[in-house]
Write a structure and sequence with these properties.
The protein is of the alpha/beta class. It has ten helices and 14 strands. The protein has a domain of 109 residues.
Length: 311
């Protein structure tokens, strides 16, 4: 089974000196990861966040071949023309290495409000934006009249020489339909294996109904994971602390969907998702000692690969 593995930007990366950043990216590559992924927020909860494209461009220059992915980019907060330009620019600075993960957000309605976006229009804005962006990146002159956007004769040059994969995130059926219409894959989060398998089947059926019959799907799963070399309790405490600090929500609301334990135990919890159709694991690794995140994530990859090879 040919799988891709992403690691969330290590928590200490941007506090390191330049040479140490490069060394850490080399360690990630050597550990079996195919890419680094990063989040995108404008002003989340207490104002936290980072610009996905800025960090993706910076990461791409720290290593010559490691992939970079925004997951998830909050597309409804932006106008599609600047986003299309950013994508075209990423195709120049990291050709063939960038993956665009998109979603509509909503965990923090205030983030939408301060950007002037009606939460009820998130889906419309995302769908219209993807229609516009994909046309522009195909080299078309785009005119569009919709509920959210009016565009007349827009053009983006140069267009990417290598197409940028688009993966769509979200837990709702609307997100699955968006994937079927626009995506190269779906990014699941906080869902059971049963729901994951159902989602994959729904996406592929919807895509066929839309005439998309030959998609080389790359569906992903993006969990927070707590990992420790020997203690499941230490692993759980690490991921609990990290998630509560970020989401400002009790861990118990996430716990049943959050693998924690030794590398082998975490791999065993992830393996059923691969059997259900997952081809990409994006791991947000939480550890008692942040400097061990990469090594622990690499150990999870090794055990997961071995478990699946034995099937």
């Amino acid at each position: 089974m040919d799988l891709k593995f992403g690691l969330a930007t290590p928590s200490q990366l941007w506090s390191l000196q330049w040479a140490d950043r490069q060394a850490l990216l080399n360690e990630i590559d050597d550990g079996g990861f195919t890419h680094v992924f990063l989040a995108d927020h404008v002003s989340f909860r207490n104002g936290a966040g980072a610009d996905g494209f800025v960090e993706a461009a910076a990461l791409a220059q720290l290593h010559p071949s490691l992939g970079v992915m925004i997951s998830i980019y909050l597309l409804p907060l932006r106008h599609p023309l600047p986003v299309a330009r950013q994508l075209a620019s990423m195709a120049r600075v990291a050709p063939g290495r960038f993956t665009f993960g998109v979603g509509i957000g909503g965990e923090d309605p205030h983030e939408l409000a301060v950007c002037g976006v009606n939460p009820r229009q998130r889906g419309v804005r995302a769908n219209e934006s993807l229609t516009i962006i994909q046309g522009l990146l195909r080299g078309e002159t785009v005119s569009f009249s919709g509920q959210a956007f009016e565009i007349d004769s827009a053009v983006i040059r140069p267009t990417p020489a290598i197409a940028i994969p688009t993966l769509v995130g979200g837990r709702s059926d609307a997100a699955l339909k968006r994937t079927a219409r626009f995506g190269d894959g779906w990014i699941g989060v906080w869902c059971s294996v049963k729901r994951y398998a159902q989602a994959v089947a729904m996406i592929e059926a919807e895509a066929i109904a839309l005439g998309r019959n030959n998609v080389d799907w790359c569906h992903g799963y993006q969990p927070w994971v707590g990992v420790d070399w020997s203690s499941a309790e230490t692993a759980k405490a690490a991921v609990k602390s990290g998630m509560e600090a970020f989401y400002k929500i009790p861990f118990e609301q996430f716990e049943r969907y959050t693998p924690a334990g030794t590398p082998l135990e975490v791999a065993a919890q992830l393996a059923p998702y691969a059997r259900a159709g997952c081809k990409m694991f994006n791991l947000k690794v939480c550890a008692e000692h942040p400097e061990e995140e990469v090594a622990l994530g690499a150990a999870v990859i090794e055990h997961l690969t071995q478990l699946l090879a034995a099937d």
